[in-house]
Specification:
The structure is a single chain. By secondary structure, the chain is α/β, with parallel strands linked by helices. The protein has one domain (5-259): TIM Barrel. It has helices at residues 15-21, 30-33, 38-51, 75-92, 113-134, 154-164, 175-180, 187-191, 217-226, 242-259; strands at residues 5-9, 25-29, 57-59, 96-99, 137-140, 169-174, 195-200, 232-235. The chain has an eight-stranded parallel beta barrel, surrounded by four helices. Strand 3 (57-59), helix 4 and strand 4 (96-99) form a beta-alpha-beta unit. Helix 1 packs across helix 10 (242-259), helix 4 packs parallel to helix 5 (113-134) and helix 9 (217-226) crosses helix 10.
Length: 260
């Protein structure tokens, strides 16, 4: 039976609390880590080592406001950003870095979508070269239309990765974004072996999972198990009352996993 590792998207200051709750890993945003001074970074790294809770997955491949499509794309700025993010991902020991970055795929008015897709394809090839150089994997995370004009569906991400034939770039899927796009969980099966990471939350408000919240997490885990996925699943929703919300989320996801 496939075993899923359950993690949580959280900040650098949440390492101890996530470990106490019992998560298998923590998913950090690199932009949050980059705000730390050297002392705070060393403290975070020490707490991760002490608790054996590591940032196996990181997001925030690019800083806010840096586009990868449109007339203002700067190859120099993109390379500078990727140098920083991949270097930091490697230093953290991350195995996977996600391209999420709300706003980076928004198209300016009247910009040619065909040109944008060519720009996006070129960027993905650059990401492949960085992934090879830094010995990590990268994954494309589709986002709802309000956050990105390109790459809104997991099935699209799978098709792009397959057509470009890049062995270091795969697919990440968010059940929250899929639901907002009315994309069926069956789309995950179309990604096949290219599905490398999954995120989930309560769709109504992007809230942490909890008992009785009306969300069918068993259906997600059943779809993953049916396709042979045996990777990571992260709680992606913010946790205002971290330990209480994170504990309830972990309990609900573990129960859903055990049910299938």
């Amino acid at each position: 039976m496939n075993a899923f590792r359950i993690g949580i998207c959280a900040g650098p200051g949440d390492v101890e609390r996530a470990a106490r709750v019992g998560y298998d890993y923590i998913e950090l945003n690199l932009n949050d880590v980059l705000t730390l001074d050297e002392s705070a970074y060393r403290d975070m790294a020490a707490r991760m080592a002490k608790r054996a809770l590591y940032a196996e997955v990181v997001s925030g491949m690019l800083p806010p406001g840096l586009p990868i499509v449109g007339p203002d794309v700067s190859a120099r700025r993109l390379h500078e950003a990727l140098d920083r993010s991949f270097d930091l991902a490697q230093a953290l020991g991350a195995e996977l870095i996600l391209l999420d970055c709300e706003g980076a795929r928004k198209l300016p008015s009247r910009f040619d979508p065909a040109m944008a897709w060519r720009q996006f394809g070129n960027f993905v090839r650059i990401v492949q070269s960085y992934a090879v150089r830094f010995d990590v994997k990268a994954a494309l995370l589709p986002l709802r239309r309000s956050a990105a004009d390109l790459l809104n569906h997991a099935s699209e991400a799978g098709m792009i990765c397959a057509m470009l034939q890049l062995d270091r770039v795969g697919v990440a899927a968010s059940s929250y974004n899929m639901a907002l796009e009315a994309e069926s969980l069956r789309s995950l099966q179309r990604t096949g072996s290219l599905l490398w990471h999954v995120r989930t939350s309560n769709v109504l408000g992007n809230l942490p999972p909890k008992e009785g919240d009306g969300e069918d997490y068993e259906r997600l885990f059943a779809a993953l198990r049916e396709m042979g996925y045996a990777g990571r699943v992260s709680c992606e929703a913010p946790c205002p009352d971290f330990e209480a919300d994170a504990a309830a989320a972990l309990e609900r996801l573990r129960r859903a996993q055990a049910a299938v």
